[in-house]
Specification:
The chain has 10 helices and 23 strands. With 421 residues, it is α/β, with parallel strands linked by helices. The protein starts with a strand and ends with a strand. Bound molecules: S-adenosylmethionine.
Length: 421
């Protein structure tokens, strides 16, 4: 069924929101105040999800998408308007999410950080499929589907990642990569060296890993996922430098995927704050822990993943920090055992699910003087901030790092201070 709609605003998730017969309608790839002909795709939880058929009256913000795959490939949501406007829209979405979900009326400015909107990704997860003739298809999932949409290159990826993708598209890999369903790539900060992870039920795991290592320029290591473990051929880890620190990152350890704004994020998280003690509760390989070690007497980096915790400990050692303690544990287990009260700074940088009430309850018991919360998910950030504000913390600044131009994703930093009692 087709209908006409004039969406009111863009919402978190990439769609525009409009109303029809009193019902909320979500439409992708359209802009506020455009007049659009759309068709219903599905109705879920009272929301009509529609697909745009024709733009009857375009917004002055509308541009020709720079990528020919836009609308087919599921990777991008925002190529129909320019990067500067995208960042402003995300700023507005962040502010509104804080207000609606966290009941935080942030009326001051949200500091905006932007960078080059293309070639910014240092990591990619390519889905691998096959044509009925058995040819390899490497790309991303189509929007709202698990069908592989093959791509020749992607404008979000660094040059090196596109170069390695081109290599994998050669015919010879069709038989070698039998059983492979995903290829993950990670390039270092110079875009010189790449680590590869192969996933699926590979029939020739180790030999194909060696073949990739010897024949694709710049590949430093190849890991083959086998059960819950990884078999690595080549370098055991890649080193990624941010500012003055080089971080060892093993296959399987988390590292940030957007390259240009990382030094700014690190500076903003730590800023001029210093003191006796600090905690980095979702520490990864130590992106924030190491620079924190220069400003605090002791820093404890807490990390749940065994691989990332091992990298964190090695990174602290390689930089000769004797004031860093690595704890391989979940944040909740760690805080249950942590007896100190009044640490100077706690950095939180959780996965998308956020920190959650059970960890936050323990955290407020520790009475940190400051909490700097880094988030890739406005809804869970807002929920957690609501809790912290209700338990004695006040936001001091809100910043938005446009880590992911052309998508609805964003990275936010909120610095909070403990109110005087
Ligand atoms: C978004 S990453 C941030 C890592 C690091 N701060 C950085 O910027 O590179 C979140 C990290 O938290 C870890 N993690 C997930 N759940 C955790 C938990 N319950 N407790 C501690 N760490 C956890 C993940 O393994 C991952 O390394």
């Amino acid at each position: 069924m087709t209908f006409e709609i004039a969406p009111q605003k863009l919402i978190y998730g990439g769609d525009a929101l409009g109303y029809r017969d009193g019902r909320a309608v979500f439409v992708p790839r359209v802009l506020p105040r455009e007049r659009v002909e759309a068709e219903v795709v599905r109705v879920a939880k009272g929301i009509v999800h529609a697909r745009p058929l024709r733009i009857l009256e375009p917004s002055p913000d509308r541009i020709e998408p720079p990528c020919p795959y836009f609308g087919h490939c599921g990777g991008c949501h925002y190529q129909h308007f320019g990067p500067q406007r995208q960042a402003e829209v995300k700023q507005e979405i962040l502010r509104e999410t804080l207000r609606r979900t966290g009941k935080i009326n942030w009326e001051k400015s949200i500091v905006l950080h932007t960078a080059q909107p293309q070639n910014y990704r240092n990591q990619a997860q390519f889905k691998v499929g096959r044509t009925p003739e058995g040819l390899l298809e490497i790309g991303f999932f189509e929007a709202y589907s698990h069908r592989v949409f093959p791509v020749e290159s992607c404008l979000l990826l660094s040059d090196k990642l596109n170069q390695v993708l081109r290599e994998f598209r050669r015919e010879r890999w069709a038989s070698l990569l039998e059983g492979c369903t995903e290829i993950e790539l990670f390039a270092d900060q110079c875009d010189d060296h790449t680590a590869v992870i192969l996933r699926g039920m590979l029939t020739k795991g180790e030999s194909v890993a060696n073949e990739i290592l010897s024949s694709i320029p710049g590949v430093a290591s190849v890991a083959v996922e086998a059960g819950s473990g990884l078999q690595v051929v080549g370098e055991p880890h890649l080193t990624y430098s941010v500012g003055e620190f080089g971080y060892r990152v093993r296959p399987g350890s988390f590292f940030q995927v957007s390259r240009f704004l990382l030094p700014k994020l690190v500076d903003a998280v730590i800023g001029p704050v210093h003191g006796e003690s600090a905690l980095d509760l979702f520490a990864g390989v130590g992106l924030f822990t190491l620079p924190m070690a220069r400003s605090f007497g002791t820093v404890i980096g807490v990390e749940a993943s065994r691989s990332a915790a091992a990298d964190l400990a090695a990174n602290a050692k390689a930089h000769a920090f004797t004031n860093v303690r690595t704890v391989e544990a979940g944040a909740q287990d760690f805080l249950r055992r942590f007896a100190q009260v009044g640490v100077d700074l706690v950095v939180l940088d959780p996965p998308r699910a956020g920190v959650g009430a059970s960890v936050l309850k323990l955290l407020v018991g520790v009475q940190p003087k400051r909490i700097h919360y880094v988030s890739c998910s406005p809804p869970t950030l807002a929920r957690d901030l609501g809790f912290l504000v209700a338990h004695g913390y006040e936001p001091e600044s809100v910043e938005m790092f446009d880590f992911f131009p052309h998508t609805y994703h964003l990275e936010a930093l909120v610095r909070l201070v403990r109110r005087a009692v």
